[in-house]
Amino acid sequence: xxxxxxxxxxxxxxxxxxxxxxxxxxxxxxxxxxxxxxxxxxxxxxxxxxxxxxxxxxxxxxxxxxxxxxxxxxxxxxxxxxxxxxxxxxxxxxxxxxxxxxxxxxxxxxxxxxxxxxxxxxxxxxxxxxxxxxxxxxxxxxxxxxxxxxxxxxxxxxxxxxxxxxxxxxxxxxxxxxxxxxxxxxxxxxxxxxxxxxxxxxxxxxxxxxxxxxxxxxxxxxxxxxxxxxxxxxxxxxxxxxxxxxxxxxxxxxxxxxxxxxxxxxxxxxxxxxxxxxxxxxxxxxxxxxxxxxxxxxxxxxxxxxxxxxxxxxxxxxxxxxxxxxxxxxxxxxxxxxxxxxxxx
Length: 345
Ligand SMILES: [Zn+2]
Known about the structure:
The protein is of the alpha+beta class. The protein has helices spanning 2-18, 22-33, 39-44, 52-92, 110-124, 138-141, 179-188, 228-243, 296-301, 318-326, 339-342, and strands at residues 128-129, 135-137, 161-162, 171-173, 192-201, 213-223, 249-253, 259-268, 285-294, 310-317.
């Protein structure tokens, strides 16, 4: 039995030595000291066949072996638990002195930047800023603006018609923000000063300077004794405010059913400086916006007495203005959502 105990001690020492995790160690403990199958207990079963003297000696020897091994297991256990904690700390280590990751913030779209600036300029001149429906009735988009059905000028504003179950009035994706002229006059009466920025639509093949969706800003001022001089003065304040530089402009006659007389306001192309490029179709001039004196029929539709009041209106090409301001050569970039393009602003 003495030999058996010696052998057990040596083998157990080796097992403890080679344990690499707390779990291994637990298995070693069970192997030698387990209540039922533990090897020490199996050896001690032989005690009953020994003499009293031998029992005493072997009992003491067995206790020595057990306490010796338990000490070794305890030691090794502490060592393994320490190593596990070290490994965990190692895996969770981070350098708090490293610079942080910068969060990426979005910013205002160039269309909105210019729109808000324009709104500020107009508000400083006493204009109201209105919003209007993008799905407009045929009446407000055309008829109230002195453009009856079958009027040839509708051809240049071909758009998307939408079936209207509710009534007889056809709905259109508005071709201009001008539909709000009559809506505003009906609601607020005269005198009135409003602008209406917003999205408009055309049935149009897209190229560098045309798209099926773009932005306009309608302007309307109605009061007593309003003349073309007032229109030109407002346009000058506006262009200087938004382009931040002096630009050459020209007014040339233009026909729009809802103004009389009507004009086209052109500016010298800021992209090519008047030399001619794809944006200005090699003319050197860009048609910026149509304008003119509000037609008496339109005032009448708005419920305003044309013999007492007069006014001017303009449909400012917001998208084109943004392209001029930033030197953008392709209108389609503005609605592309391309981050490489947008992050430049
Ligand atoms: Zn040009």
